[in-house]
Design brief:
The protein has 226 residues and is an alpha+beta fold. The chain has one helix spanning 193-225; strands at residues 2-3, 10-12, 14-18, 24-29, 56-59, 68-71, 79-82, 101-103, 105-110, 115-121, 132-139, 145-154, 160-166, 185-186, 188-190.
Length: 226
């Protein structure tokens, strides 16, 4: 087994299968046939009374920067939404791009209920017709997902706009890829660095094979023409 520099994933090597008499029956290679990454460590111990999201990141669509939530430290300026990798069509109503980071205002965390509250303000412009979002996030005991709470949206005149719930319905896991609040249920899980590294590696290998296959096809077309 060959490990990545981070020791997060197995990036190479193989496993051989043998009969009882020692004859080799076959091999399987890492990571294409055998895909392994480091287990996500618990954010808190099972009996911890100090569970906190600070120091953690929660993502949707398996990607950081797609309206991911980053909890850095307690107090103002310590939590934000990242739009660094949001789709091109995510624009403010004045036509400008979303900021790479949007800070939560009035951020507060209650450890006894594992609940975070905060607000996102878009004034003097708006986003999707909304001027303000009021967040309530309830985290799982293991701090590995947002399992409850809601986002309440308000229009520029202060009237209620739309409500969206946090939950764990896998059917809506990728609903926010086209619009951050199109899905009825918002699915967020704790960012797993090792898993993300493995997905990136597999995608790179897949693209490399496709490119090589394309080059082979191009060469064959030239030969056919000749």
């Amino acid at each position: 087994m060959v490990f990545s520099e981070s020791l997060n994933v197995i990036i190479g090597g193989e496993s051989g299968q043998f009969d009882a008499d020692g004859a080799q029956r076959g091999t399987k290679s890492f990571p294409d046939e055998l895909t392994y990454w480091r287990e996500l460590r618990p954010a808190v111990s099972a009996d911890s009374a100090d569970a906190s999201p600070y120091g953690l990141t929660f993502i949707q669509g398996r990607r950081i920067g797609l309206a991911s939530y980053h909890f850095v430290h307690e107090g103002e300026g310590g939590a934000y939404i990242s739009y660094e990798h949001g789709p091109e069509q995510w624009r403010l109503d004045d036509g400008s791009f979303l900021p790479a980071r949007k800070l939560f205002k009035d951020a507060d965390y209650n450890p006894s209920t594992r609940t975070f509250t905060g607000q996102i303000e878009w004034t003097p412009t708006s986003f999707g017709g909304d001027a303000r979002w009021k967040y309530t996030m309830v985290f799982s005991e293991a701090m590995d997902a947002i399992v409850g709470g809601s986002v309440k949206a308000f229009k520029p005149d202060g009237s209620a706009s739309r409500d969206h719930e946090f939950g764990t319905s896998v059917s809506s896991a990728f609903g926010a890829l086209s619009c951050p609040f199109r899905a009825n249920v918002l699915i967020y899980e704790r960012h797993d660095e090792a898993k993300a590294e493995m997905l990136s590696l597999l995608l790179a290998r897949h693209n490399s094979r496709r490119a090589a296959a394309g080059a082979d096809n191009d060469e064959q077309e030239v030969r056919d023409r000749a």
